[in-house]
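Subject: Interface between my chains keeps coming out wrong

I've been trying for a while to get a sensible model of this assembly. When I model each chain on its own everything looks fine, but I need the whole thing in one frame so I can look at the contacts. Pasting all components below, labels as-is. Any help appreciated, I'm running out of ideas.
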Amino acid sequence: MTASNGHGMTLAEKVLARASGAERVVPGEIIEGNVDLAMMHEQGAQTVGPFHQMGAEKVWDPERVVIAIDHWVPASTEGAAVLHRILRKFAAETQLPHFYDVGRHGICHQILAENGWVVPGDLAVGTDSHTNMLGAMGAVATGIGPTEMAAVLALGQLWLKVPPTIQVKVHGTMGRGVTAKDLVLRILGEIKTTGATYKSVEYSGPAIEALSMPERFTICNMTTEMGAKCGMVAPDQKTFDYLAPIAKHAMHPLTPDADAQYERVVEIDLDGMPPMVACPYSPDNVRPLPDVVREHIKVDQVFLGSCTNARIEDLREGAALMKGRQVAKGVRFIVSPASTKIYDQCLKEGIIQTFTDAGAVFTNSSCSACFGGNMGILAPDEVCASSSNRNFPGRMGAKEARIYLMSPAATVAAAIRGEVADHREYL
Amino acid sequence: MKDVIEGRVWTLGRDVDTDGIISGKYLTIIDPEELKKHVFEIALPEFAQAARPGDILVADENFGSGSSREHAPQAMKAIGVGAVVADSFARIFFRNAINLGLPTVEARGVRAIFEQGDTARIEMRAGRITNVRTGATVTFPPLPPHLLGLLDAGGLVEKVRTELAARKAAAAAPP
Ligand code: SF4
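Reply #2:
Try treating it as a single job with all components included. I did that and got this:
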């Protein structure tokens, strides 16, 4: 429905209007939004101090708060153990029932997705920048810091500036061996790491409608690398089918108006698009995979994991390529599922066996090697092929180490070949 | 918050990301006093040793991109940074800094008028930054009243504390 005065609203504007109880909002306006879901991981330990300093005693709605520890699981340092203990104690004291502790854990965004914590129309916030991933549900999902989270826990609200929206319209069909990861890298190459700062990115068009929910998660996940406040896909039958058995609260499906006003429209054609790679040291330093392959870039480590690409679909695809092949000599291949549920599924399907037979290390589910603070840390000058989302200097360890971001299938090819390789040769 | 902030300038380039400000290995540190020892270890290694309270950071575009770690502005606050000025900011960094009461100013073209060691004068409400050595200025749209109010309150903790106390008082008041 179009508002009577002026043009219609984008998806983000619709959700923020709902969150603030307004009929209409416009970009640039500051609103007080009612939060539908608040998520914390280890950084939430820093929420506890400010929460008490604010004089807060109760959490506004314990049914709307999820704690999922993921960066250091099980605790790998004393510091991490302390963070976990602070959160456990806080959860007990404020009676927060939804704590995904060691054994039921997973990467926080995956925990939200696979348990139906975020649904269409929601305003969701989390103490992690990749909270954007949940925008795939047709929600405004965004990252905030721990002090701000303390205010959200106390009041159930936060201030937000209504963002202008960039529409990314995707046409065409993906070629053999081309994935959602390649698509989002291609979009990043276009929008760049600052192109969507403070903005909402709305993904639409026939090629987005054709994507599965896990693929939409991958796309929305890397909206963060564009600097965006949120990345969104309008909910459709796929969203409803995915959420029907798991949704934790009522859905408010909203779609953008046909006459919504976009700050910019980016058109992407998938026809003929090759797989992509983001080269060091920025996720927007994107080049076609075949060009990079020609440079024979030797890898020391390969990482198939992270909230971007460690869902069961990703690991199945990787295992299919890995089956009957070996990890190249001198290469460390780390495979880390995004959640305990996915780990279990891998166990049932023989995926773990496939990877370990090949000489890979299949780890417990966590952020793993993604952020250089837990395990799989790179030494100076080492090179890593990774299915994760960031390749800044020092992201996975030494600041001189170089990280190439790519699809899960391409990481497996790199592990087999010992250098950046084109997985389509193995299909 | 002071309306005019003056201090010695440290210059930084573009796209200084949060890994460059506080790297992943320090994220389990909660104590800001400990954290500040590692601030800018990757992006500006001499800073942690040589910084003086009141110093002003002047960066190019996209300062603070990357993760949501509040450790980044927290470490700057702990070391006594007087203000952070940049051509543009990444959004979570900007929010975190304002929420912690760290004056944060986005001013297009600001990086180009400063050199390392200059003195900057920032007029928060007038929306002007001056290089005291050269006299060069750039203007910027002042923060919206909502955010100036947050800085004036000393950050989000103070603001919410006042609000919760008012709610409590209202609830306790006889009808
Ligand atoms: S997997 Fe990586 S990007 Fe995702 S939440 Fe964990 S550390 Fe962050």
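Reply #3:
Confirming on my end. The CA atoms of residues 166 and 172 of chain B lie 10 Å apart.
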